[in-house]
Design a protein that fits this description.
Strand content: 5-15%
Helix content: 55-70%
Number of helices: 5
Largest sheet: 2 strands, antiparallel
Distance between the termini: 24 Å
């Protein structure tokens, strides 16, 4: 029983990622955006990992800023308020990317190693 309880946060983070990914796909489809752009840009947020070329600290900072829900949610809200379709499209793709990362077990990075995340060692 204790082992199952210890795995619960890991399961919940993956479930959360699944929910975000599915919701993003539904919103993307509902808005009639191009699936070619979705496929092309889905992995674009991973370009933030370029910061690792400088150092573990800079890399984890860049990666984490781009892999939290705050910025794409802010972009999506702003885009909706201002009627900017491109901004909304990019925000949804960005959210889908983060959800996909969480679903497959990639988490926010600690500065000691790329493989040390809020999930566990990858």
């Amino acid at each position: 029983m204790q082992q199952k309880l210890q795995r619960m946060p890991h399961f919940l983070l993956r479930l959360e990622g699944t929910a975000v990914l599915i919701t993003a796909i539904i919103f993307y489809n509902h808005n009639g955006f191009s699936w070619w752009w979705f496929a092309l840009l889905l992995l674009a947020p991973d370009l933030a990992a370029v910061g690792y070329l400088h150092s573990e600290e800079v890399g984890s900072l860049c990666y984490n800023i781009v892999h939290t829900y705050v910025l794409p949610l802010a972009l999506g809200l702003l885009a909706m308020l201002l009627g900017l379709e491109l901004g909304l499209q990019l925000a949804i793709i960005w959210l889908a990317h983060i959800g996909l990362d969480r679903l497959v077990g990639y988490g926010l990075k600690y500065p000691d190693s790329f493989k040390t995340t809020h999930f566990s060692k990858v």
